[in-house]
């Protein structure tokens, strides 16, 4: 019988004991309800629940865990109970809230048709449309709920959980056992939002299991009879699966596998295992099992310290079928590739540590059995052509920069000859701009120290006639110079071969000081006088006898190059109704002595010389310190710019450089023929021009030209256009034309087109494509096509790439890559070689 009856809105007049018991019951319900549900589902952690009573507190895990596990409650929090009816049944010793029950406590809200607290059995029951919303937004829904007071035992029927971070769980029944075990029967998980038009429609993907068991003390989740479904169709099944719960940020266990298929190694899979040694230390074992070559062992150790972190990786294999790496040479006979060996492997290490907010140091290290191992076994990006082992120290100030590093280069193509790679020990750069003015102008200085050695001479032929004919493509690059064909005449050797790298040791210390000050007169003319001084001290130990490229033996060199000059600009500005336009004549005169010791200094860092609009007004157009521009020179040009009111702009530049007195450095070649066929070797240089047009922020077009100074023929031309056609389509195209430069090792004209595009079909689907057309060979030598789909819970990408490579026994490699991404589960990929063509097939 009813002993007490309290109408809604009059709860404050109920017996005091009722309020305290309900407060305790609600707290237990809020905490207990969550303990019977899955909490999170992630790549390395799936669920979490607490075993302690309502008085126990715990930190709130991320994601779905907040609100479903035991959480910190405020002991001073007030509880509000509303119901159509509150009953205190003395006979059954029960407290009953019935009819639109709502219990508010510490940010959580419990709703049910009826809530009963049985004091004799110390059990709490909620019935009819049970809904619990925790303070973080997590929502638990169930038909009914029955828990002991300490929620060590109990059950929930027809459970559903929706978290604010889009994690959704359902189960026909949830049982609480032994105080630390939660069992979901016929449970399912998905991060995919239900279809708004048809909530009954299966999600994009979900994981279903006959039983999902959460062992709280073990901090583990166990799945029995689990299957992965896509759009309601079973896709994969496993009889048993286990994973750590979300309270564990790092836990030992297996990771998502990756799959591979190539001609040389066959089909295989990598099954990584993560070993959590400590919170700041771990090891990942990634053995690769392949059908042709057996098992490759691969392990990476990572360690994070207070000021930085480092890693060490080792991989190796005893190949079962090294004959798979036998190619066919130009003579039609089998030829061994770099991978033709029994044992192959690599040791790799990286590290970086902060010294303070301005300084850090670190290293990268690579030691490998052969140059193609990394790419043959998919341990590095297929487009990587070299790796650098280095030890470095870097500092950055407000007006200064310091960089020192020792480097060892390793080529990754079969054409690379390791002995021709320099060993740098070290190279140091320091630059600083003074904050205070000096004589009213700005003073800056740069220091460079370079020391290197090389074991083998690096020669390139200036004509295909002097390139060696290799029986195999794997013996060296085809533009190496064959001295047996050239002969012993030094003059002929110098004409027919250039030297890209010396044999021996080279040490140089260089310093550059630059001062400049700008004046603007009353007519608006800009005058900038400047002073520049470069000083070089070098020691050269060539390990060969005197050669046509560089003197042999030990040589000590010193070179000074002072320069004074004046730059003049006179902008004419016109304001129109449509915008503003400016015409600006520019003239620069530099006075200095001739460059000395040309051909005595090795040229290691100044071989890249491209004369165009970007360096027309540079004091020295060389890219490094080993060469320095000498003699008197005048650089002149005119620049036009227009800025439209609607945001568009045009910029154009046309100019030329003149050797006005002294020796033209660009006409006096060094060991690498730097300056030859550059457009600067004559007293009057080639013409350079730039035309940039951007009518809107969605389209731009830039043209760069170099015209012969005699007949205006095009020596170099680049045009690049980029367009965002609409919010869906973005395209770009680059056309390049470069005339032959045999003195630099380019025997033929190079011409090609590269096009790229991306198309956003809708908010989920994207297409991308790229292609490079070699006009000289009349063929497409690079293609890329890709399609991808991504939504809030699922992603898939399919790409096809056809590329010409100098690695291994193929010129062209066709690769298909498929990548699946399941939110919270991780990413799995599969790459396969679908075709290849050897060089002898062409």
From TrEMBL:
Key word Transmembrane helix present: yes
Pfam family name, one: LptD_2
Isomerase recorded as keyword: no
Record localization: Cell outer membrane
Domain LptD C-terminal: 343-736
Domain LPS-assembly protein LptD central: 223-302
Transmembrane segment boundaries: 26-49
Subunit structure: Component of the lipopolysaccharide transport and assembly complex.
Annotated protein name in UniProt: LPS-assembly protein LptD
Organism: Ancylobacter aquaticus
Phylogenetic placement of the source organism: Bacteria, Pseudomonadati, Pseudomonadota, Alphaproteobacteria, Hyphomicrobiales
């Amino acid at each position: 019988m009813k002993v007490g009856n309290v109408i809604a809105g009059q709860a404050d007049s109920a017996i005091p004991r009722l309020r305290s018991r309900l407060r305790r019951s609600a707290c237990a319900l809020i905490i207990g309800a969550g303990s019977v549900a899955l909490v999170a589902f992630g790549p390395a952690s799936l669920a979490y629940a607490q075993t302690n009573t309502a008085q126990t507190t715990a930190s709130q895990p991320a994601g779905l865990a907040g609100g479903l596990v035991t959480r910190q409650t405020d002991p001073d929090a007030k509880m509000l109970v509303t119901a159509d009816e509150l009953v205190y049944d003395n006979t059954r010793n029960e407290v009953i809230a019935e009819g639109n029950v709502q219990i508010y406590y510490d940010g959580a809200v419990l709703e049910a048709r009826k809530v009963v607290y049985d004091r004799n059995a110390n059990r709490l029951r909620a019935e009819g449309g049970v809904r619990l919303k925790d303070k973080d937004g997590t929502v638990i829904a169930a038909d009914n709920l029955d828990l002991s007071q300490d929620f060590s035992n109990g059950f929930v029927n027809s459970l559903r959980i929706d978290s604010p971070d889009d994690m959704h769980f359902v189960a026909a029944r949830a049982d609480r056992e032994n105080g630390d075990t939660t069992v979901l029967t016929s449970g399912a998980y998905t991060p995919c939002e239900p279809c708004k038009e048809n909530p009954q429609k299966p999600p994009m993907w979900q994981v279903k299991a006959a039983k999902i068991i959460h062992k709280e003390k073990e901090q583990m989740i166990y799945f029995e009879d689990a299957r992965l479904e896509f759009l309601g169709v079973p896709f994969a099944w496993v009889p048993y699966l286990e994973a750590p719960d979300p309270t564990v940020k790092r836990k030992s266990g297996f990771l998502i596998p990756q799959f591979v298929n190539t001609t040389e190694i066959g089909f295989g899979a990598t099954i990584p295992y993560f070993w959590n040694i400590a919170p700041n230390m771990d090891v990942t074992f990634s053995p690769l099992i392949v059908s042709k070559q057996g098992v490759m062992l691969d392990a990476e150790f990572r360690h994070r310290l207070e000021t930085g972190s480092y890693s060490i990786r080792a991989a190796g294999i005893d190949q079962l079928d090294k004959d798979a790496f036998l190619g066919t040479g130009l003579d039609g006979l089998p030829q061994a590739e770099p991978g033709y060996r029994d044992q192959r492997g690599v040791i790799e290490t990286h590290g970086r540590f902060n010294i303070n907010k301005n300084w850090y140091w670190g290293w990268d290290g690579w030691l490998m059995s052969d140059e193609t191992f990394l790419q043959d076994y998919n341990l590095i990006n297929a487009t990587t052509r070299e790796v650098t082992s280095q030890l470095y120290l870097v500092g950055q100030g407000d007006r200064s920069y310091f960089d020192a590093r020792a480097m060892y280069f390793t080529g990754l193509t079969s054409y690379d000859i390791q002995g021709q790679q320099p060993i740098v020990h070290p190279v140091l750069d320091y630059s600083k701009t003074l904050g205070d003015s000096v004589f009213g102008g700005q003073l800056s200085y740069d220091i460079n120290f370079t020391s290197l050695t090389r074991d083998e001479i690096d020669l390139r032929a200036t004509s295909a006639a002097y390139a060696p004919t290799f029986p195999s493509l794997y013996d060296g690059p085809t533009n190496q110079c064959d001295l047996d064909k050239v002969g012993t005449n030094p003059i002929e050797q110098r004409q027919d071969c250039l030297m890209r790298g010396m044999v021996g040791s080279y040490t140089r210390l260089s310093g550059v000081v630059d001062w400049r000050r700008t004046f603007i007169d009353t007519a608006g003319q800009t005058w900038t006088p400047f002073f520049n001084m470069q000083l070089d001290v070098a020691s050269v130990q060539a390990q060969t006898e005197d050669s046509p490229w560089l003197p042999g033996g030990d040589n000590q060199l010193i070179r000074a190059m002072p320069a004074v000059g004046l730059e003049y600009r006179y902008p004419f500005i016109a304001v129109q109704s449509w915008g503003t336009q400016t015409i600006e004549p520019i003239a620069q005169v530099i006075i200095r002595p001739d460059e000395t010791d040309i051909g005595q200094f090795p040229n290691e860092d100044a071989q890249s010389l491209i004369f165009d609009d970007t360096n027309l007004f540079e004091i020295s157009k060389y890219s490094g310190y080993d060469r320095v521009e000498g003699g008197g020179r005048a650089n002149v040009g005119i620049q036009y710019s227009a800025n439209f009111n609607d945001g568009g702009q045009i910029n154009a530049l046309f100019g030329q450089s003149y050797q006005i007195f002294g020796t033209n450095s660009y006409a006096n070649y060094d060991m690498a023929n730097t300056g030859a066929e550059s457009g600067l070797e004559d007293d009057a240089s080639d013409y350079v021009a730039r035309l940039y047009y951007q009518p809107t922020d969605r389209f731009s077009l830039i043209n760069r030209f170099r015209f012969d100074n005699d007949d205006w023929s095009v020596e170099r031309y680049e045009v690049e256009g980029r367009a965002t056609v609409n919010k869906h389509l973005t395209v770009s195209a680059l056309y390049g034309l470069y005339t032959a430069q045999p003195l630099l090792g380019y025997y033929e004209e190079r011409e090609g087109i590269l096009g790229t595009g991306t198309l956003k079909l809708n908010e989920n689907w994207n297409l991308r494509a790229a292609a490079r057309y070699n006009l000289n060979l009349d063929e497409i030598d690079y293609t890329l096509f890709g399609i991808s789909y991504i939504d809030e819970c699922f992603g898939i990408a399919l790409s096809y790439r056809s590329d010409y490579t100098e690695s291994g026994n193929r010129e062209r490699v066709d690769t298909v890559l498929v990548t699946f991404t399941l939110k919270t589960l991780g990413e799995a990929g599969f790459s396969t070689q679908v075709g290849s063509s050897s060089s002898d097939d062409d």
